[in-house]
């Protein structure tokens, strides 16, 4: 049976700020992120399996990405916990805002690395993460490919 890649698209609204950056993105601002998740595997060959003909049910892939990424990042503001932004984060949290502290600079590149780690942990053994594309704006995106890593 052939290996087939299947892809599901997600979107979420997230705020961030790049501490120490030399441009406008050092300010707190937000993006309508678009995330494309591609996995690879062989379609199930067993006619008695309810998932016959599927690499992975799109719904099962959606559950993983929703639980570990979309529901966590949507309408949150992400700050690098290794910077003084941690104080701003605390103030916002104390005032009831949805803040996420991460261990990295929240660029598209670093976020896509984080997402790859999270998704890989959740996939069944027979399904491999092939690629992620994280689109920050209409003109800017970062990609993670298994073959590069
Ligand atoms: N390599 C990276 N460069 C920049 C990142 C990033 O994650 N990786 N992020 C930013 C900012 O978050 C910014 O909001 C997005 O940058 P940019 O594409 O430059 O945004 P513009 O609105 O100016 O895009 P145009 O379409 O060119 O107007 C900065 N850099
Ligand atoms: Zn930004």
From TrEMBL:
Binds 1 zinc ion per subunit. Zn(2+) binds at residues 16, 29, 31. SUPFAM superfamilies: Tetrahydrobiopterin biosynthesis enzymes-like. The keyword Transmembrane does not apply. Gene3D superfamilies: 6-pyruvoyl tetrahydropterin synthase/QueD (3.30.479.10). GO terms for biological process: tRNA queuosine(34) biosynthetic process. The keyword Lipid metabolism does not apply. Pathway: Purine metabolism; 7-cyano-7-deazaguanine biosynthesis. PANTHER family: 6-PYRUVOYL TETRAHYDROBIOPTERIN SYNTHASE (PTHR12589:SF7), PYRUVOYL TETRAHYDROBIOPTERIN SYNTHASE (PTHR12589). This is 6-carboxy-5,6,7,8-tetrahydropterin synthase.
């Amino acid at each position: 049976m052939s290996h087939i890649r299947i892809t599901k698209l997600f979107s979420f609204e997230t705020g961030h700020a790049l501490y120490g950056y030399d441009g406008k993105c050092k300010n707190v601002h937000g993006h309508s992120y678009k995330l494309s998740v591609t996995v690879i595997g062989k379609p199930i060959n067993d006619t008695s399996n309810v998932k016959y003909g599927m690499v992975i049910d799109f719904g099962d892939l959606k559950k993983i990405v929703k639980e570990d990424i979309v529901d966590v990042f949507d309408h949150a503001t992400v700050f690098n916990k290794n910077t003084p932004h941690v104080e701003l984060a605390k103030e916002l949290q104390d005032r009831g805002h949805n803040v996420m502290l991460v261990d990295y600079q929240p660029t598209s590149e670093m976020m896509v690395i984080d997402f790859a780690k999270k998704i890989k942990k959740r996939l069944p053994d027979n399904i491999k993460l092939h690629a992620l594309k994280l689109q920050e704006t209409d003109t800017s995106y970062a990609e993670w490919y298994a073959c590069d890593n």
